[in-house]
């Protein structure tokens, strides 16, 4: 079976990892030079490199593979299992200097469950370090925040994001054009994992194809939406968005529109207007009874602007 590009191209060392800013890079380098890490809490949107960074740290710190315990909190069924696993693991002597527990998606653990981890973190702090990752830091209880150094991973710059995807395609010797990559980037940004996965799915013939020429059943509606927007068919895009977007996604869609402002206007003046329309839509979103109608109304306004 073919390897997943997201795994194959997951950087293993610091050199392959793209940082959002120099300060964060310096911080991570500092940990590596000093040979130790505090308990850490990585936060950030899905697919922005939290798990990758944790693994790079373990690798650069040369932590023995038997001294690493990885737990995905969203997959384990109960906090008792999680706690038992961790306790059993940290109780034994490390092979190297320390043991590390990578607790992925810690925000999926109930507040009571999280509270149960406090004691373990404290009791074994001389031999074990915890690296927690989460999408929503506000769902992690203050007691854990206070035990960990927070590290927020900002979304990559869109150009860096695009370059990274293009680099993978080039390494795989896949034929592609900039316009097609751009469609995938717009549909997935800032989730690099999703972008890499989609692009892999659509380049099986050795050429990166646009979603409409590929098998469409499995495609994300956002891709189709980007294509409609790009073609200036805003009312079709609006119809699609309002029928496909799940209610809990709507807020993210405003953010997405904001990130892709150039879809609605080419010049700066138009883009400023588009930003205002989107901001107003987002503010109204929290107050109106029917968020779908509000989204629809926002898109109608954007459509008029683009026309
Ligand atoms: N900063 C980065 N530099 C290089 N590659 C990256 C970066 N961020 C993400 N990637 C790529 O994207 C993929 C997904 O990253 P990763 O699994 O670390 O995301 P995550 O932040 O842990 O997401 P989730 O919240 O969904 O668990 C990786 O396989 C890696 O190839
Ligand atoms: Mg992860």
Structure commentary:
The protein is of the alpha/beta class. The chain folds into 3 domains: 19-152, P-loop containing nucleotide triphosphate hydrolases (Rossmann fold), CATH 3.40.50.300; 158-219, Helicase, Ruva Protein, domain 3 (Orthogonal Bundle); 224-307, Zinc Finger, Delta Prime, domain 3 (Up-down Bundle). The protein has helices spanning 5-8, 22-34, 50-60, 79-91, 111-123, 142-147, 158-171, 178-188, 192-201, 221-230, 234-244, 250-259, 268-285, 291-306; strands at residues 40-43, 68-72, 99-104, 128-134, 149-152. A 5-stranded parallel beta sheet has the order 2-3-4-1-5, with helices on both faces. α4 (79-91) packs parallel to α5, α8 (178-188) crosses α9 and α11 (234-244) packs antiparallel against α14. The chain is globular, with a radius of gyration of 22 Å. The N and C termini lie far apart (47 Å). The structure holds adenosine-5'-triphosphate (ATP) and magnesium ion (MG). Adenosine-5'-triphosphate binds at residues 6, 9-11, 17-18, 44, 46-52, 133, 135, 156, 164, 192-193, 196.
